[in-house]
Amino acid sequence: MVNKSIENKTVDIAIIGGGIAGLWTLARLRQAGYQAILFEADHLGCVQSGASQGIIHGGTKYALTGKLTHSSQAIQQMPHRWQDCLDGQGEVDLSQAKKLSEHQYLWSNKSLAAKITGFFASKVMSSRMQHLQKQDYVAPFNQADFSGELYQLDEPVLDIQSVIDAIRQQFSDFIFQAHVKDITELMVNAAQENSESKESYAYQIAFSEQLNNQKSALIANTLILTAGAGNENLLSSLNFSQPKMQRRPLFMPMLKAKQSILPKMYAHCLGASALPKMTITAHHLSADQTVWYLGGEIAEKGVGRTIKEQVQVAKKELQSLMPWMDFSQCQWSALAIDRAEPEMSDGSRPVEPAVFRQNQVITAWPVKLAMAPIMVDKIIDELELAGIEKNSQPLLLSTSVLGAMSMAQTSPLPWEKVKNWL
Ligand SMILES: Cc1cc2nc3c(=O)[nH]c(=O)nc-3n(C[C@H](O)[C@H](O)[C@H](O)COP(=O)(O)OP(=O)(O)OC[C@H]3O[C@@H](n4cnc5c(N)ncnc54)[C@H](O)[C@@H]3O)c2cc1C
Questions:
Q1: How far is the CA of 201 from the centre of ligand 1 (A)?
Q2: DSSP, res 139
């Protein structure tokens, strides 16, 4: 285990939580000249970010549900913004990250084809969607037995582990593994150069373990909470009653087999409601093994089932959606995981990233991995509004505490953690 010291460095912003939200924030803030560091309790990306399907949405999902409002139109820029980063020319350098697929596909069975064709011909969809001719069909739809319609959607799928790793490698000097247990708000008077004094706040951060028998606490003058579901406990330790958070649980089936059985595929199956019945993404497991990870309606409806029950339902549903395929050689599992988001009064899914500021504490949820760039734009606006200076001196920084911390590593992916496949 490598220990690091940040002796002689001044730090004034502490980011708590190392999923995509915290990492994107760290990268943008350091590039903008803010002295920021990040604390991750476990491994980077070990909760929602690593468990995501890696889809960089451009708003189609919202268009399908009729929620493509004026405000959510910023989402349409996301595929371009991420592409600039992948090309090494964007706000965060992702030139070392990998894409799993340039496109996603949408398919429907024959009975729904007419309805869906009409919808995709509509103005809102036609620029982003291409109706494919049979000779252009990709695996596993390039089979004589497939009788539906196939559309190609201009939204990429990323290898999220490689995205997280690309950011970690560039900023590893500022990423520490430590579970923040408790935060206390302190009010202080910071002396100003012109000898006037200004009311200001500072935050004492306590960690869950004693590090090398040293007192495991430090003080930072600005906090950014990007701990996903962990934001709830952090806010309560600050005695903040707002913002409130909601969890929307998912139970994601997964199956593994040789790539000759499970080809690489990134596709949404559309049902009668025009909401994806199932969203399938393929991931690399080993030299000759692929995993299919199943999201969409099946993951939402599966909450409350046992793993065995969810696997049974997934087997049946997948076979009925893709009757031309043979899944008998596959091994199965399922992952229970919550989406953590700002609370909506009616419990519905939020469509935009949420950023809240109280004193010098900013709490943020990106809502979608794809929308992390918009979330960080909002964080930077808040820092400017609050007058947080770049390169300002921290009120007090206990370098001895940080010197005893180790660097946070990138998390394995959910299918790499499964011990017993069914
Ligand atoms: C199954 C699933 C599939 C998804 N698919 C997609 C998709 O395809 N495309 C898309 O755009 N979005 C997708 N999403 C949504 C997306 O994954 C999330 O919006 C995004 O990853 C949230 O990132 P985050 O950094 O806020 O949270 P997280 O990734 O959950 O990260 C929070 C981090 O904070 C750490 N932490 C918590 N408490 C503390 C503490 N006290 N001290 C220190 N560290 C702490 C945790 O260990 C964790 O690493 C999906 C979500 C799920 C659950």
A1: 28
A2: T
CA of 63 to the centre of ligand 1 (A): 24
Residues with CB under 6 A from ligand 1: 16-22, 39-42, 46-49, 51-55, 57, 179-180, 226-228, 230, 234, 250, 252, 295, 337, 339, 365-370
pTM of the model: 0.93
Q: Where in the chain is the domain with CATH 3.30.9?
A: 104-154+247-339
Atom of ligand 1 nearest to the CA of 339: 53
Q: Quick one: which atom of ligand 1 is closest to the CA of 57? A: 11
Tell which one of 24, 49, 177, 218 to mutate to probe ligand 1, the residue whose CB is within 8 A of the most ligand atoms.
49
Query: In 208-265, at which residue ranges do the beta strands (DSSP E only) sit?
Result: 217-220, 222-225, 245-258
CATH number for region 13-50+163-244+344-414? 3.50.50.60
Concatenate the DSSP letters of all residues of 77-104 into one string: GHHHHHHHHHTT-SSS--TT--EEES-E
Q: Ligand 1 center to residue 88 CA distance, Å?
A: 24
3-state DSSP helix/strand/coil % of the chain, to nearest 5:
30, 30, 40
The answer to whether residues 223 and 17 touch, using CB atoms and an 8 Å cutoff, is no
Question: What is the architecture of the domain spanning 104-154+247-339?
Answer: 2-Layer Sandwich (3.30)
**Cα→Cα distances 292→1, 122, 307, Å:** 33, 31, 16
Per-residue pLDDT of the chain (422 residues; tens, 9 = 90+): 333 433 333 458 999 999 999 999 999 999 999 989 999 999 999 999 999 999 998 877 656 655 555 545 678 889 999 999 999 999 999 999 999 999 999 888 766 655 565 555 555 555 677 889 999 999 999 998 888 888 898 899 999 999 999 999 999 989 999 999 999 888 776 555 554 556 678 888 888 865 555 556 777 889 999 999 999 999 999 999 999 999 999 999 999 999 999 999 999 998 766 567 899 999 999 999 999 999 999 999 999 999 999 999 999 999 999 999 999 999 999 999 999 999 998 878 888 999 999 999 999 999 999 999 999 999 999 999 998 888 766 545 555 667 778 889 999 999 999 999 99
- Residue 253 · residue 302 · CB < 8 Å: yes
Ligand 1 mean position, distance from CA 319 (Å): 30
